[in-house]
Amino acid sequence: MRVLFVSYEVYPLAKVGGLADVAGSLPKALKELGLDIDVLMPFHGSVQNIGIENTGRTVKTRFIKKEYEFELHRTKLPSSEVSVYLLKNDELMNVPDVYNVSDLGLQAMAFSDAASVFASEGSYDIVHLNDWHTGLMAVYLDQIGKPARTLISIHNLAYQGIYPESYLRISGIEKDRWEKISSGDNINCLKAGLIASDMINTVSPTYAKEIQTSEYGAGLDGVLRERKDDLIGILNGIDTTEYDPAKDRHLWVNFDSKNVEGKAVNKKYLQDFVGLPHTGNAVIGLISRLVDQKGLDLIAAIKEDLIELPIQLIVLGTGEKKYESMFERLQVECPDKIAAKITFNLDLAQKIYGGCDMFLMPSRYEPCGLGQLFAMRYGTVPVVRFTGGLADTVKEFDPSSFEGNGFGFYDYSPEELFKTLKRAIKAYEDPRTWSRIVLNAMEEDFSWKASARNYLAVYEKILEVKGDA
């Protein structure tokens, strides 16, 4: 079986969000299962040149009145034999960014068309698409009589790639397909992928159920309910080689589940690093986009009570100005309790995972979430709202059985968040209890192995259905 995995970002070549982590890890896990798999991505202006070579081949695509030619480049994912192909067009991709470009819709459409040509020439059995940027590939492949079958993964349904109908007029997509892939007078790239792909998956079982409801379906719940028999939730994993507290070079002291003492040393160094005093209180980490979806409105609602708790809070991230300003003000008002770093810094993120006691994720919705998985890997106990992948990975600690790896709440309210934090703090104040929760978290297996086997089963199911057709 030959598989082409198509993503707009792939770690470490280009990373903006969690999609890059998935695209840089899942193909390697699938390769280890014996799958013949390649990765395809755009050659963004910001791509890290890690052994990239020009193959000398080109791929041409023709929109109405406009032809684009893409150079085909190639490298490999680090520490693997997975080939990564990159399609380069300097006219479309000459800015040092992945998504912040002048016309992302046109760029994604042209890439999807060129990628479809590449896929159709490559004797692939499965083309695995990811998010709206690649959704139109399913339509293009179908239009040219695709030799391969398609799976599309939804990493966040809120982002759909909606553009004016004028884009359809230059796309080369046949007119009798327009109505099905439109939302009102606009083209909807994700909807196109959901309708035209053979199967659909999202990145956790709970999120797969949630998006079939009007509350979480972002206007596409009807489409997803119609395709419920072709929709499956597969939990994301993490690269446990890349994220390993026993070897992580970003930490001051390495540690593992058999030698957790090093975590306390990292906590003290982390406090020094961000300017917080050493106390016996719990240190809570928040690494996030500072937006409502991530539960920042809940935190804002309890901020006065929050600073009265026996905790310290380290915030890392950017987002809405009101939340950036809120944390900056709190840092000035409470310099012994709040450290706000309004930026993103991978080195500091790793130090937060390794040095904090708790990790806060009170999300309104969360397709899968990777932060809680990284946190547990490093013995940092998650405090979450039970939604999407958070509900599938974080289990409430039960003091009677000593089972569970974190703390959570269901109702999206400031009161429930505050009660959950107090519950976690109470557990933290009992060293025996806390040590057990930390150990439970660290012993969870969130590697890609199980997820990769589930994806392989989906690929096989798609081909089996194809054979019966």
From TrEMBL:
Pathway: Glycan biosynthesis; glycogen biosynthesis
Residue stretches making up the Glycosyl transferase family domain: 279-435
GO molecular function annotations of the record: alpha-1,4-glucan glucosyltransferase (ADP-glucose donor) activity; alpha-1,4-glucan glucosyltransferase (UDP-glucose donor) activity
Pfam family, one: Glycos_transf_1
Biological process annotations from GO: glycogen biosynthetic process
Transferase as UniProt keyword: yes
Domain Starch synthase catalytic: 2-226
Keywords associated with the record: Glycogen biosynthesis, Glycosyltransferase, Transferase
Residues annotated to bind ADP-alpha-D-glucose: K15
EC numbers: 2.4.1.21
Catalytic activity of the protein: [(1->4)-alpha-D-glucosyl](n) + ADP-alpha-D-glucose = [(1->4)-alpha-D-glucosyl](n+1) + ADP + H(+)
Recorded superkingdom: Bacteria
Enzyme class: transferase
InterPro entries in alphabetical order: Glyco_trans_1 (IPR001296), GS/SS (IPR011835), Starch_synth_cat_dom (IPR013534)
Function, as annotated: Synthesizes alpha-1,4-glucan chains using ADP-glucose.
Family, per entry: Belongs to the glycosyltransferase 1 family. Bacterial/plant glycogen synthase subfamily.
Name of this protein: Glycogen synthase
Species assigned in the record: Mesotoga infera
